[in-house]
């Protein structure tokens, strides 16, 4: 026999915080603190996204139109195309690492403050 009732909460569990109302979400979104959080995110994400896309397109264009240059051997069987291709992976990981540091230092504290204020119902 089944029921539609949710299972009982585990014993000793901490009750979840009250859910903010729609009006509280709108107020938080219009707050200067949220605007600062959004600016901090955009000032990092947008320039790096544009730079990485430009870097990727440069690689694609060089591969298509500068075959002689990309085929230039640097040492052994390692050519410019291979080095630039591996650099694509390296820059991807570097951007992820930089973003992680940026988020920890600038985004997370602001987001946690907004979240705490909303959960407290202030």
Descriptive labels:
4 helices; 72% helix; mainly alpha
Summarize this structure briefly.
This protein has 122 residues and is mainly alpha-helical. The protein has helices spanning 22-30, 32-65, 67-70, 80-120; strands at 73-75, 78-79. It is built from four helices and two strands.
Could you explain how this protein is built, in words?
With 122 residues, the protein is mainly alpha-helical. Helix content is 72%, strand content 4%. The chain is built from four helices and two strands. α2 runs antiparallel to α4 (80-120). The chain is elongated and about 65 Å long. It starts with 21 loop residues before the first helix and ends with a helix. The model has no long low-confidence stretch (mean pLDDT 87).
Helix content: over 70%
Mean pLDDT: 87
What does the radius of gyration come to?
A: 24 Å
The shape is elongated
Order of helices and strands: HHHEEH
Number of strands: 2
Low-confidence stretches: none
What is the subunit organization of this protein?
single chain
Report the total helices: 4
> How far apart are the first and last residues' alpha carbons, in Å?
44 Å
Strand content: under 5%
User: Order of strands across the biggest sheet?
Assistant: 1-2
Q: What kind of sheet is the major sheet? A: 2 strands, antiparallel
Secondary structure elements and their pairing?
Layout: H1 22-30, H2 32-65, H3 67-70, E1 73-75, E2 78-79, H4 80-120
Helix pairs in contact: 2-4
């Amino acid at each position: 026999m089944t029921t539609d009732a949710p299972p009982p909460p585990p014993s000793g569990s901490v009750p979840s915080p009250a859910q903010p109302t729609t009006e509280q979400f709108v107020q938080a979104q219009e707050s200067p603190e949220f605007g600062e959080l959004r600016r901090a995110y955009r000032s990092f994400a947008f320039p790096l996204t544009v730079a990485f896309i430009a870097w990727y397109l440069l690689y694609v264009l060089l591969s298509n139109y500068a075959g002689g240059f990309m085929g230039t051997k640097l040492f052994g069987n390692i050519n410019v195309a291979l080095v630039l291709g591996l650099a694509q992976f390296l820059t991807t990981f570097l951007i992820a690492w930089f973003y992680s540091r940026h988020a920890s230092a600038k985004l997370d504290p602001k987001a946690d403050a907004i979240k705490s204020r909303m959960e407290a119902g202030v």
